[in-house]
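thought: fold this chain, then report.
action: predict
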Amino acid sequence: MSTRPKIDEIDIKILKALLNNPRTSFTKIAKDCKMSTNAIRMRFERLEETGIIKGAIMQINPKTFGYNCIAYLGIQTHSNEEESVTEFLEKEPNILRIVPIIGRYNILTIAALKNVDDLADIIEKISSHKQVRTVEANIWVDVVQMDHPNNLVIEPVDGPFHITEQTQKDTKNEVKVVQSYASKFPWKKYSAVHHKLDKNDLLILSMLSESARTSFRKIAKRIGISTQSVIRKYQRLRKEVTPYSSITVDLTKLGYVGTAIFLIRVTHKQEISDVVEKMLHIPNIVVAIRTLGRVDMIAVAPFATFEQLLKLKKEIHKIPSVMQIELLLDKPFSVWPLNLFSFLLPKKPQAV
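observation:
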């Protein structure tokens, strides 16, 4: 049976604070928890050692680098041909993620492209594979506002034990609707204008994209500029290039056994934004994306039990204007949120 590392309420406060902002200081968390800074630091290190915390990322706005078309590609293959199609997709540089899936598709991918013409080209290329039956595209509208880490539910655990001990208690009742954490990530439009980034900007982005807790002093030393200059650049980049940052966590260590992907159609297109807003009041809806294509939006939620999954679907059905829901199933993320767009940054940018 799967087990979970010990997590108490203080650990949950640490995780929640860092999911909201990975640069939150241990001093601030300690003050909120009424503990010493050293005690919080030790707990953080234990959360890393047990594999709950995997790292920290700063998400990149792909539009800044000219990638204006991000899309889910749902692929149906002929029987038992998923492996050969996956090998084919792995050779495509614009395919960011390939997921074997249960549901309408055999494979779900995420593609990053410059424009819709490029999307049409890659759909045609995939469709030409002899083992591919169909390819369906759903283009992301909210390209950089898809993840909502603070909606993740984290349950306390007294020690390693069977993961359903806590969740069995929870699933006796309806899934409770909670106050949305979406306000933590203000919805704003990120333009497709290519912001002018110098080599130092790229180096800062590269370091923080892979390790968002890296100190400004360390970055300044690496680049050879003042710490204040790094802070000023960081503040500008946060406004123009990076929508949010977060620690990454292993959802299996938090008791989750699978990931539900909901493909949703609404009755009135003008109400999609309202549906998304209501969706983010449901616990564990950690991704919500408006889309253009066969469906109007896609939502993602981890689940710990089958009963919890069914109740999630029921809560979505309660939202006015939700007309149809299709369910895809994936394994739980071992590292989440995904650092999808880090490939846009140079691996080893040179300082000026």
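thought: worth noting. The beta strands are 53-58, 69-77, 95-100, 107-113, 132-140, 245-249, 258-266, 287-293, 297-303, 322-330.
final: tokens above.
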